[in-house]
User: Fold ABC transporter from Penicillium alfredii.
Amino acid sequence: MSAGTLLSTRQGEKQAYSEDYQHCESETSPSGWELTEALMQSLALKDTGIEIGFRDLEFRPDKKNPPIIQGLSGNIPRGAFLGIMGPSGAGKTTLMNILAGKTCQTAGITTLNGAEEDLSRFKQLVGFVPQVDAALAELTVRENVLLSARIQLGGVKEDAFIKQHVESIMSCMGLEHIQNNIVGDPTTGKRISGGERRRVSIALRLVAMPLALLLDEPTSGLDASTALSIMRLLESISRMGVTVVCVIHQPRAEIFKLFHHLLLLDHTNQVYMGNADDMKAHFEARGYNISDRVNPADAIMDILSSDTELLPFTEDIQGMDPVETCCSHARTETLNALSEMVASRKARWYRQCSLHLVRGLRQQIRQTTTSVVGLIVGAISGLVMGLAVYKFDGNLFHGIFRHPFEPLSSAVEYTLVPQLALLSCLAISLAAAPAGVETFGGEKNNFYREVDAGDSRSAYFVGKELSTIPRIVLSALHFTTFYIILATPAISFGMLLVLNMLFFYCVYGLSSAVAALVQRENALFLSLLLCLIVGICNGYGPLLSSIKSWNVEWFWYLCPGTWFAEAYFTEHVERFAYLYDTESAAKFTGYVAGRTGFDGG
Assistant:
């Protein structure tokens, strides 16, 4: 089925869905109907839901360990509100990751709309909301949602439509009154509440008009009233045709009654999969007495947590029977067309890049304390460096006079410039590494959310890197200014500023890479250690000439400190080439003079 045919069928469905939902009165604040209208406007671009099925599903991390889940079978109809319950370690989150296409099962099959498919191919059709909220702390609620909408819908919609769509989402999610509030985080004084943060996380996914919404413990850490409000909102969304699946631990009775379907797990096994209304009768038929006076969710969790062996049960699964090849092929074409449409709605690469750049600059501006501290540290580092060489009065190099004045030469000093390069590397590393760690390390969750939604990794990286340039320039400017005032070196201010900026950029890059690879609490220490290593390996101690005799100079040339020191040496020494034998100085140190451009590149 072509994308054009699919779009035409969606137009015909609009009226039918509208009639279906006219009678639905929203229980959410302030108006669920506005959200219905906002999502129904997207029918010209997408289907209104997908049917997810799975049979004999199994996942084991490796062959040596037992499976985390096994033998799971079920069908989640379009527009269903499914709750997944079970004790800790039952595999709820693992199953959710498989359904979201984030993890691939090791056995069994998965289907979309009745056709056997690899769910990872259609991740863009699904909105996944993890336990950890991913909104950026420095931005307002509206800025977070609007930026996501511009990336997700910027390829086919004008900005005026996107803004109106965001307003509808904000209104129905109950976020209007805080839309201009900074999101913040637990370490800042200004922040929105936990329930509001969870609503923002859902809005970030909902704004992209997904066909299914998967949430991992959406009520975790929330008070009872807030949890009920959010679950009512999700149930209302499911009535719009969006398939909603929630992992939930032990809900209150009011929340439990909202679910249309239940999937109950007992230590990797499936105990029940079917309508929520039939669950009580199912367990009572097997000898369990569930009193009307108790919360059925509590009773079910007691049963699931007991040592009694429970037989698996699954209601008749519609749409899971083998389908004819032609039907399966047609459904696959439909899904492919949907996936292509979702991908085509996204903003172009350069637009995504510019949006990430503007967002990054806005974050830098609002990180006032961090930015000011970074500038102060840079200035103090330059000041200390300048004081260290103040006594030399700018005379940092002494060589052998050129012929015929060799006899007039005094004691040579070839190592002071490399030593200053080493100290500069260390000072810049200490000043720049903490800020570099925060460039990417502070928003890993947001990065994963955007990548899962199909956003461009390269656009995110380029935009974020470009946004750090003003901060790098200002830090290098403060460092260079205070240093050059006290040290009065022979090198020009402009050249020294450029070299310092380049090394600042290297430290930012190394710190960002470390922050992306390790846990945040370890990133600062490891990045400082790495930056100190690459700074120390600059050819001063031991001298690069000695290292070359050991045939291990390749490692030193892997370190930015060596290239920085070589350019630093060239710009200090080559200015005296008319007077001193600079070739001897270069040979003694091991640096190759006269290639500053190459060193900087």
In short: The chain has two domains: 3-50+77-93+118-345, 372-438+469-600.
